[in-house]
Amino acid sequence: MQRSGCRGFTLLEVLVAMFVLAVGVLGAAGTQATSARLRQQAALASDAVALAASLAARMRVNPAQMALADASNPYLQLDYDAADGAPAEPPVQCFGAATCGPAQLAQFDIHELERSVYDAFPGGRITVCRDGGGGVLAWTCSGGSNAPVVVKIGWRSRTGTGATPFVAMVVSG
Q1: How far apart are the C-alpha atoms of 19 and 89, rounded to whole Å?
Q2: Alpha helices for the chain (secondary structure H)
Q3: Parallel, antiparallel, or unpaired for β 164-172 and 79-81?
Q4: What's the CA gap between 164 and 152, in Å, rounded?
Q5: Which residues lie across from 103 on neighbouring strands?
Q6: 64: which residues sit within 8 A by CB, 6+ positions away?
Q7: How confident is the prediction along the chain (173 residues), in pLDDT tens digits per residue?
């Protein structure tokens, strides 16, 4: 009998192939996890833009409150952090046929916005202020009476310790 020239795989070759396959599977799993995290962050950013646009529209349809001096404008006093707990109930519900004055409508708008931030954003925070920050996202507001009104929304990311502003939308100015 003659021996054929074909030989099988050695155990070492099989182990190397399994190792290469395992590295590929781990890489694919890591890519999938990163993709899921980025998809969640993109969804939060999209929701934040929609929420800021909604508040901007509410502020524009309440010109009586927007005409007040900054110190008495309830919208410009908004600085809510969800870490402080759920927002208190508004003094009046301005739904449907309810008759609300401009000040009550502003309080109701602010409550609805705080509730949305509390429910939709992990460790969310929102502030409305006059800010001429020059494109730098920070919670502090550097603007004076002529600076634009800006809505800032942020949330706690997995890597950060506190809420970071991710969205800033200029409302007026």
Answers
A1: 59
A2: 11-60, 63-66, 102-120
A3: unpaired
A4: 10
A5: none
A6: 102
A7: 565 666 667 888 889 999 999 999 999 999 999 898 889 888 988 999 999 999 999 998 888 988 888 888 899 889 999 888 888 888 788 877 668 888 888 999 999 999 999 998 888 899 998 887 666 678 888 777 788 888 889 888 766 666 677 787 887 75
What residues does 155 pair with on adjacent strands? 164
- 52 vs 45: CA distance, rounded Å: 10
Helix axis angle, 11-60 to 102-120, nearest 10°: 180
Residue 56 main-chain phi, psi, to 5 deg: -60, -45
DSSP conformation letters of 88-124: PPPSS---TT----HHHHHHHHHHHHHHHHHHHSTT-
Q: Which helix (H) or strand (E) holds 164?
A: strand 164-172
Give the position of tokens 């000040």. Answer: 103
On whether the CB atoms of residues 115 and 89 are closer than 8 A, the answer is: no
Instruction: Determine the residue type at 146.
Output: N
- Quick: pLDDT tens for 10-24: 888 889 999 999 999
CA–CA separation, 53 and 171 (whole Å): 8
- Quote the pTM value: 0.75
